[in-house]
């Protein structure tokens, strides 16, 4: 339930937060989804993340701290790796003792675009590219494959957490304007790169072939050779497009798609198609 309080009792700006506190909150951001629920999503985790900063900002007024904790327990949901961007902005507003409605509005405005941007950066770009490179190493028997994947992924996501925490806090409210003005273009560019990478991975690692031959004297007709002549890797492409259609248009879940591929593979192998 939202509080009816619109401003803090003490409107004197607090002292800027030190780097140690900012780093502590950046580390706490890993617990953002620890108490995830379907009523307020990440709200409890969000409050836990920024609590050290709020305690320092409102150290001289316990009532203001309670008010701040109350409105920071309202609905919140954003990308877990980019949450420190919002944390920095909100803490900057809290430090200036801004109007509570303004803080609430900025928090809501920032969390939406970051969800799309975070997905574009991590799930559609970083993970496919990194996994594509390192999985090839693992397939070839190199133990460096999974180790390198974990190193690259975690270096990037930890680096983003700490960098955005300090950058957005120092930038303050200007950060939200920068985010919203470029969010659409950035998300589109990163998504296009991600789609390109998925296409390349499908062509490079799609190994599904049709094991059908038609008797023709001493030179049987190999159906796979015909398909490759029309379009190499046609079967992997068709399966990829089928899964995309089922997830995008029919609302299938990833687990359902995995089960479908398993059934197709087992049945196809049993009857001799694959």
Topology:
Layout (H helix, E strand, L loop, with lengths): L18 H10 L14 H15 L4 H10 L11 H13 L4 H40 L4 H28 L2 H32 L7 E2 L6 E2 H8 L3 H15 L5 H18 L3
Helix pairs in contact: 1-2, 1-6, 2-4, 4-5, 4-6, 5-6, 5-7
Question: How would you characterize the overall build of this protein?
Answer:
The chain is an all-alpha fold and 274 residues long. It has two domains: 19-200, no CATH class; 207-271, no CATH class. It is built from ten helices and two strands, in the order αααααααββααα. Strands 1-2 form a two-stranded antiparallel ribbon. Strand 1 (213-214) and strand 2 form a beta hairpin. Helix 4 (83-95) runs antiparallel to helix 5. The longest helix is centred in the middle third of the chain and has 40 residues, at 100-139.
Main sheet summary: 2 strands, antiparallel
Q: Unreliable runs, pLDDT <50, ≥5 residues?
A: none
Radius of gyration: 25 Å
Helix content: 55-70%
Shape: elongated
The DSSP helix count reads: 10
Give the helices and strands as they follow along the chain.
Answer: HHHHHHHEEHHH
> Which structural class should the secondary elements be placed in?
mainly alpha
What's the structural domain tally? 2
Strand residues, percent = under 5%
What is the count of β-strands?
Answer: 2
Strand order of the largest sheet: 1-2
């Amino acid at each position: 339930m939202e509080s009816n309080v619109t401003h803090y009792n003490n409107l004197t700006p607090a002292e800027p937060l030190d780097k140690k506190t900012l780093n502590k909150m950046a580390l706490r951001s890993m617990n953002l989804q620890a108490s995830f629920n379907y009523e307020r999503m990440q709200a409890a985790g969000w409050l836990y993340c920024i609590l050290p900063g709020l305690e320092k900002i409102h150290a001289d007024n316990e009532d203001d701290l309670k008010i701040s904790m109350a409105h920071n327990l309202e609905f919140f949901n954003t990308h877990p790796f980019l949450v420190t961007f919002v944390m920095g902005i909100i803490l900057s507003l809290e430090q200036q003792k801004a109007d509570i409605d303004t803080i609430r509005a900025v928090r809501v405005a920032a969390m939406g675009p970051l969800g799309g941007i975070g997905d574009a950066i991590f799930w559609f770009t970083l993970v496919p590219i990194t996994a594509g490179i390192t999985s090839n190493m693992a397939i070839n028997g190199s133990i460096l494959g999974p180790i390198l994947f974990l190193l690259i992924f975690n270096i990037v996501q930890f680096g983003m957490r700490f960098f955005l925490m300090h950058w957005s806090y120092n930038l303050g409210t200007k950060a939200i304007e920068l985010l919203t003005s470029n969010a659409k273009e950035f998300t589109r560019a990163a998504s296009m790169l991600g789609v390109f990478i998925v296409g390349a991975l499908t062509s490079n690692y799609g190994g599904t072939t049709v094991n059908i031959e038609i008797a023709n004297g001493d030179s049987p007709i190999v159906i796979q050779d015909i398909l490759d002549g029309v379009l190499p890797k046609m079967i992997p492409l068709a399966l990829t497009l089928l899964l995309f259609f089922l997830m995008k248009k029919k609302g299938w879940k990833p687990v359902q798609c995995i089960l479908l591929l398993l059934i197709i593979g087992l049945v196809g192998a049993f009857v001799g198609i694959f």
